[in-house]
Amino acid sequence: MNNRRQTLYLYALPAFVLAMPTIPVFILLPTYYGEDLGLGLAAVGGAFFALRILDVISDPILGWVSDRLRSSFGRRKLPMLIGGVLAAPALIALFSPPEEVSIFYLFGAGAILYLGWTAIQIPYLAWAAELAPDYHTRSKLNGAREAAGLIGILAIGLFGVIFADMPKAEQYLLLASLTVGMGVVTFVLLFKFVPDMGKTRPEKQKLTFPSKNGLFKRLLGAWFINGLANGLPAVCLPLFMTHILDAGETEKAWFLFLYFLAAAAGIPIWVWLAKYMGKHQVWCMSMLIAIVIFAAVPFLSAGSFIMFGVICVLTGLTLGSDLTLPQAIQADCADWDRYRFHQDRTASLYAYWSMSTKLALGLAVGIAFPVLSFFELEEGGEYGTSVLIFLYAGLPIILKLVAVGTMWSFPLNMKNHQFIQLLLERRS
């Protein structure tokens, strides 16, 4: 195996492990603590909301710290190591609570886990921009990482099927133990064999938003809008499958599996296309395809499982582009930022990127659930299902059109990026 391919695989491998506990933490644990452990849904919901606020606030701070670190071990490796040391015991504590558990235990273990997770995630994303300075290689590296993450999500789905008869407490402890064990192995391989390309003597910089970087703001805006367009169908999907398709639990599981499997399979297709077209144009093309697919949703009715399965596969394929190409474009924007403003703040830019992602998902929930409650979807309100279809497909179409309009003529193409890299090389 040549060094470039080894770096690609060993950089992407931790994403598999990092993705494994995401669905249990964000989807399964709130119900487990609220109902099974008796803390109450309202109290648990408030605790997770507070954790999300803490998570968003910590992003720019930890990104700034990662850019400012001076360490012979590596300014990307060191915060990831510290984050792993924090997150591993917190994950086990959160997944194996004591019998007399309290809401303070949930918040304390959750806060440590979220901080550790962010300390890992932001430098991990920034590391890709420094490992692959080439315009096209960045797409491949980001694609490998996101594909590994999607496979991790699929693995958790398989884990749930295999251990379905195991008590929840034992199941969660086994999952946390497997995650920590595999995490130790993958992080050791990452730190030992993947070079940390960050400078050990970074220049001074303030903790400020890059308001003068127009390219970054334009990309960030499109990413947020498209994130909201993806978040609305995600939060409405269980309701859509129940109230429109009349799907059972087995059908729901298969639809989710097809969706994420298609996303993983689509990543190499979009990376390959980006070699022949601009990354921003390929991303826009994938969003336009998603728009066409969503236009078929109003024609679905109870039992339209085959047609909805096709929609899941096709929209899953476009998700592969959303997960890969925008982050590769973000790495190009970091080069422009370094050239134009004479600052190396790659991790800080990715921190605002992470904030945007979390805010988009949070806003999707904040929009969809109150609106559906107002139109009495659960009670069989007259307009409930129509509003559900609009939130699941109609509003995302509008938002994706706005994102396409924002990015279609994005000026940072391959030729301009190569010129920026040449100027950076001459400066150094």
Characterization of the model:
The model has no long low-confidence stretch (mean pLDDT 87). The chain is globular. With 428 residues, it is mainly α. It has two domains: 12-193, MFS general substrate transporter like domains (Growth Hormone, Chain: A, Up-down Bundle); 211-428, MFS general substrate transporter like domains (Growth Hormone, Chain: A). It has 14 helices and no strands. The chain is 79% helix and 0% strand.
What is the topological layout?
Blueprint: H1 3-19, H2 22-36, H3 41-68, H4 77-95, H5 103-131, H6 135-162, H7 168-193, H8 214-243, H9 249-274, H10 279-294, H11 305-341, H12 346-374, H13 384-407, H14 414-427
Helix pairs in contact: 1-6, 1-7, 2-3, 3-5, 3-12, 4-5, 4-7, 5-11, 5-12, 6-9, 6-11, 8-11, 8-12, 8-13, 9-10, 9-11, 10-11, 10-13, 11-14, 12-13
